[in-house]
């Protein structure tokens, strides 16, 4: 038992959450100040670069609307190519943001305050990129609103028994709720920026968006309740979204898709890839904006552990799929999986296995978990590996289904590639605008986890006090 | 309105604006002082008072004698509206208005309707949580006399305040000022607002 206790004591969670013992005002300055002074030169370079990619996206999609989805590499067995791969990949990335903001909130993981704003912003921009793909994939984008149930002159209604329609509801609900959650979290911080504002334009803009927040306890009371309820709602929501995405596959009859493991497997994969993307972004942003004392090495260490855990879950799912296909005794299922590992797309399969299962095992070593260059490279590998996971799922099952006479090999065209690259432009441009104009760390929440935010003379004292955080209810005489 | 006030208001258009006391604002050094002061204000029987802090201070609800937020009830009602509405929508469109047999499934296929029932329950609950919270907080409200205080900008930075409003039945400026100073305030000021 004693080694376990010793290790628990060495857990980074017991280390101070914010380094350097800053005051409340220091935090307003450290985070709020970034939005007030001139952006660093790297910001202009990166924004210029990614805005150009976003322009490419606009151009390619414009051509797509003009010409039709024939410009992509889709063929008859493989009617879902990169567009759906990218859709699933981007939605998955979004999931880490909700996990950090909602699930870790419910589990009272106070270290989340350093990264939740950041991760929620990532969620919103990733879901925007994800939503773009099914919309442009329908081909006739001008009738995409037909997926919504509204009375119309055709006297038709959408088919509510189709998983594709569930997806419309799941992803759009997810986007709306994430946006609301993010904005609610932003209101007190926007009020902080409003009260720091020097110019009239900033005062007016921030005054409007902070809704007249006064930080009064009668407001905080309803606010905290709303935040708790939103976290409680977002938690099953985030689990449902990727489950519903997986239904797009699992509800079909195709070998390799028609399996009950898909919902949990997709959710684990989503969290895995999302954490990798949060890390990729956070490692760069904390460096450029000198936030190493707020997003500390301990935070990165904990996130590395979550990545390791989800990597094992994903690895388990890969092997479980193989086992079940063998155990089913179904020749088509068995073929689908052997074909994945040894068939025409074996290269993609082994990229997936290497990036998602083998390379993350390095994270067992604490040295690597605390080495920024190595973890950065690992997160890039995971981002790539998770893209290939979706590629393997979507393409191998479609390309080689029941009848060999209908098989075909799928190759993307330049327009597939440019559309995907273009969404990076959209994503990073939005993200850089967020970094420039909004507080990238939840200021009021980080203030709440500082040691001096907890009352001392009232209520409990004693041994448990130092660790008592949010959960301590210090009730006067009540 | 008495004639003297009317004259005063007329004069105000070309002289200094007529103001009245809106609230007394007291600043406190830290969380502990704020909690202690909140208890004293509560015990003294003031009703229209509030505490202001840059982050939610735990234990302050009890110290102020605040009841729990009723937001959960609003969200619960919205949840039932969302879930029930989704069920009705799917039943009516799939089984009544546009009955179409698809892959041999029954027209009213409850299992297939569950995902959207769930999604709309969450969606409407989230609307209830956010807009209900704003309504309970009477936000957006861009003007409040408390913003007339120059010190109050610290309330979103690192300052802790107690405000007692002039509407409080027990409000009497000098008495409130002395009371808050005695409660440990580091600074007490009377915040005024223009008469409308």
Map the helices and strands:
The complex is a heterodimer of chains A (478) and B (196).
Chain A: H1 2-9, H2 24-36, H3 41-67, H4 82-106, H5 116-137, H6 163-196, H7 200-209, H8 217-250, H9 262-288, H10 297-328, H11 331-342, H12 346-358, H13 366-369, H14 372-399, H15 414-437, H16 443-448
Chain B: H1 3-12, E1 19-28, H2 31-43, E2 49-52, H3 60-64, H4 71-97, H5 110-136, E3 160-165, H6 173-182, E4 187-194
Antiparallel strand pairs in B: 1-3, 1-4, 2-3
Helix pairs in contact in B: 4-5
Question: Key terms for this structure?
Answer:
heterodimer; A: 478 residues; mainly alpha; 0% strand; disordered C terminus; B: Alpha-Beta Plaits; 2 domains; four-stranded antiparallel beta sheet; 6 helices; elongated
Beta-strand level of the residues of chain A, as a percent range? under 5%
Structural classification of chain B: alpha+beta
Overall number of strands of chain A: 0
- Count of DSSP E strands of chain B? 4
Q: Can you give me a brief rundown of this structure?
A:
By secondary structure, chain A is an all-alpha fold.
Describe this structure in words.
- The complex is a heterodimer of chains A (478) and B (196).
- Helices cover 67% and strands 0% of the residues of chain A.
- Chain A is mostly helical and 478 residues long.
- The longest helix of chain A has 34 residues.
- Chain B has 2 domains: 105 residues, Alpha-Beta Plaits (2-Layer Sandwich), CATH 3.30.70; 66 residues, no CATH class.
- Chain B is elongated, with a radius of gyration of 26 Å.
- Classes of the chains: A mainly alpha (478), B alpha+beta (196).
- At the A-B interface, helix 2, helix 6, helix 8 and helix 16 of A face helix 2, strand 2, helix 3, helix 4 and helix 5 of B.
């Amino acid at each position: 038992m004693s080694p376990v206790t010793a290790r628990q004591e060495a857990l980074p969670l017991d280390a101070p959450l914010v380094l350097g013992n800053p005051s409340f005002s220091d935090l307003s300055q450290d985070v709020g100040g970034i939005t007030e002074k001139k952006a660093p030169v790297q910001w202009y370079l990166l924004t210029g670069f990614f805005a150009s990619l976003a322009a490419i996206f606009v151009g390619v999609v414009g051509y797509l609307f003009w010409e039709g989805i024939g410009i992509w590499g889709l063929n008859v067995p493989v009617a879902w190519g990169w567009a759906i791969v990218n859709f699933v990949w981007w939605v998955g990335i979004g999931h880490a943001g909700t996990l950090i903001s909602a699930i870790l909130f419910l589990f009272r993981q106070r270290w989340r305050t350093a990264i939740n704003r950041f991760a929620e912003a990532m969620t919103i921009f990733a879901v925007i990129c994800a939503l773009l793909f099914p919309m442009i994939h329908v081909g006739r984008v001008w009738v995409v609103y037909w997926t919504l149930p509204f009375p119309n002159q055709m006297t038709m209604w959408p088919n509510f028994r189709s998983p594709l329609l569930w997806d419309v509801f799941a992803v759009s609900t997810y986007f709306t709720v994430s946006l609301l959650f993010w904005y609610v979290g932003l209101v007190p911080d926007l009020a902080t920026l409003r009260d720091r504002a020097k110019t009239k334009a900033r005062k007016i803009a921030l005054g409007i968006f902070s809704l007249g927040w006064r930080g009064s306890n009668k407001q905080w009371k309803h606010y905290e309740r709303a935040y708790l309820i939103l976290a409680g709602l977002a938690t099953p929501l985030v689990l449902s979204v990727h489950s519903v995405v997986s239904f797009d596959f699992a509800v079909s009859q195709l070998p390799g898709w028609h399996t009950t493991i898909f919902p949990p497997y997709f959710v684990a994969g989503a969290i895995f890839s999302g954490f990798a993307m949060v890390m990729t972004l956070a490692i760069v942003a904390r460096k450029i904006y000198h936030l190493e004392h707020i997003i500390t090495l301990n935070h990165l260490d904990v996130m590395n552990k979550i990545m390791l855990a989800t990597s094992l879950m994903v690895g388990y799912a890969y092997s479980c799929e193989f086992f079940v296909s063998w155990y089913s005794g179904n020749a088509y299922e068995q073929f689908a999986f052997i074909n994945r590992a040894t068939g025409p797309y074996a290269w993609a399969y082994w990229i997936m296995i290497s990036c998602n299962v083998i390379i993350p095992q390095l994270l067992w070593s604490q040295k690597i978990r605390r080495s920024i260059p190595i973890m950065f490279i690992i997160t890039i590998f995971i981002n790539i590996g998770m893209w290939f996971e979706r590629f393997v799922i979507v393409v191998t099952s479609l390309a080689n289904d029941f009848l060999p006479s209908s098989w075909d090999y799928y190759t993307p065209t330049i327009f597939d590639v440019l559309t995907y690259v273009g969404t990076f432009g959209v994503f990073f441009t939005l993200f850089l605008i967020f970094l420039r104009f909004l507080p990238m760390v939840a200021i009021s929440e980080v203030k709440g986890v500082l040691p001096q935010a907890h009352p001392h003379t009232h209520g409990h004292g004693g041994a448990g006090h130092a660790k008592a955080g949010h959960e301590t209810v210090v009730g006067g005489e009540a | 309105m008495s004639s003297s006030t009317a004259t005063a208001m007329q004069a105000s258009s070309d002289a200094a604006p007529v103001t009245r006391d809106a609230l007394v604002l007291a600043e406190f050094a830290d969380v502990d002082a704020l909690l202690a002061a909140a208890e004293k204000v509560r015990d003294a029987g003031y009703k229209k008072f509030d505490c202001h802090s840059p982050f939610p201070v735990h234990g302050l609800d009890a110290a102020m004698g605040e009841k729990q937020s009723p937001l959960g009830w609003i969200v619960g009602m919205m949840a039932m509206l969302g879930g029930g509405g989704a069920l009705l929508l799917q039943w009516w469109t799939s089984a009544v208005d546009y009955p179409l047999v698809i892959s041999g499934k029954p027209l009213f296929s409850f299992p297939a309707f569950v995902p959207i029932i769930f999604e709309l329950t969450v969606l409407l609950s989230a609307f209830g949580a956010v807009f209900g919270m704003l309504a309970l907080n009477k936000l957006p409200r861009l003007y409040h006399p408390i913003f007339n205080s120059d010190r109050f900008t610290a309330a979103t930075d690192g300052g802790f305040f107690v405000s007692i409003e002039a509407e409080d039945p027990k409000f009497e400026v000098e008495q409130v000022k002395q009371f808050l100073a005695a409660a440990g305030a580091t600074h007490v000021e009377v915040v005024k607002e223009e008469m409308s």
